């Protein structure tokens, strides 16, 4: 990676309900696909660099207002990220790339967004077919798991005491479990608080840890509990960081339509990289 590319490169640090991201206007193509994974690994390091759950490169699109290249902190690419999507939509507004209603291109398809100040609503593509209540063997015995793909894969485990859930230990085991190979899966631990309110803790693939929030995970958790008849739209989702995401949907049998995710997208600060941001040990 050429240090000259990085020196004085502008970025935004943003957060969506506790998930934090580094966003770069890459319409010039200065960050190539070949160096993006290494850049993500370098700048997302906490303590020794900017630190974030992921890196978002905003690029030109022939199909939408913009497209993104989304990379997790380990350098892997993800098809979709709900919290990152809201940040990218607001970033586009701040950079003058689009109006308050916009569309952007992801590996999961075209995503529509509506930005109202720091509050952003995403209209998401219909999810993949859900699998409800199947057994998964773990070190602590059999667990009952459900699964749905909301742009990225999510396993859902219902728990009575979410504070006692072993999110890192069990989450990591399920994330790499042979039943979800080769792609792996995100893992959500969910408690139903009332018919319109759930609480979720998520182990995120690519971050390889519990995060303060996961937009696609919150969406997946609301949909699985909705398909099981435990909640009805709209569903408020309390995240680990304490912020609340709202998921709207329509369920007809096993078919989900009109899927929307609403939550905050905050600008933490603007900055410029130095060579030491990336190349310091």
Summarize the structure.
This protein has 281 residues and is of the alpha+beta class. It contains six helices and 17 strands.
Fold and architecture overview:
- The mean pLDDT is 95.
- The two termini are 15 Å apart.
- The chain has 6 helices and 17 strands.
- The chain has a 17-stranded mixed sheet that branches.
- It is of the alpha+beta class.
- The protein has helices at 3-6, 36-43, 82-94, 167-175, 215-227, 275-279, and strands spanning 10-16, 19-25, 54-59, 66-72, 101-106, 109-116, 119-123, 131-138, 141-149, 153-158, 186-194, 197-204, 209-211, 235-238, 244-252, 255-264, 266-272.
- It folds into 2 domains: 3-118 and 266-279, Roll (Diaminopimelate Epimerase, Chain A, domain 1), CATH 3.10.310; 131-263, Diaminopimelate Epimerase, Chain A, domain 1 (Roll), CATH 3.10.310.10.
- Strand 9 and strand 10 form a beta hairpin.
């Amino acid at each position: 990676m050429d240090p000259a590319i990085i020196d004085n490169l502008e970025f935004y640090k943003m957060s969506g309900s506790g998930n934090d991201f580094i966003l770069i206007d890459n319409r010039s193509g200065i960050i190539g696909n070949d160096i993006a994974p290494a850049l993500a690994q370098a700048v997302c390091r906490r303590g020794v660099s900017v630190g974030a759950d992921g890196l978002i490169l905003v690029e030109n699109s022939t199909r939408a207002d913009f497209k993104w290249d989304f990379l997790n902190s380990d350098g892997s690419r993800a098809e979709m990220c709900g919290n990152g999507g809201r940040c990218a939509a607001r970033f586009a507004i701040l950079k003058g790339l689009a109006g308050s209603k916009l569309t952007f291109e992801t590996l999961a398809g075209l995503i529509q967004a509506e930005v109202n100040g720091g509050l952003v609503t995403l209209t998401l593509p219909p999810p993949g077919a859900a699998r409800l209540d199947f057994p998964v063997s773990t070190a602590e015995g059999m667990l009952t798991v459900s699964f749905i793909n909301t742009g990225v894969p999510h396993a859902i485990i219902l728990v009575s005491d979410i504070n006692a859930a072993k999110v890192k230990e069990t989450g990591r085991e399920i994330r790499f479990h042979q039943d979800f190979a080769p792609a792996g899966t995100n893992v959500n631990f969910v408690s139903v608080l009332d018919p319109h309110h759930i609480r979720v803790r998520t182990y995120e693939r690519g971050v390889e840890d519990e995060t303060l929030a996961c937009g696609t995970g919150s969406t997946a958790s609301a949909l699985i509990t909705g398909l099981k008849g435990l909640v009805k739209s709209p569903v408020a989702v309390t995240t680990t960081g304490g912020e609340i995401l709202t998921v709207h949907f329509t369920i007809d049998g096993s078919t989900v339509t009109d899927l929307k995710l609403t939550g905050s997208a905050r600008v933490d600060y603007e900055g410029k990289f130095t060579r030491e941001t990336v190349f310091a040990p």
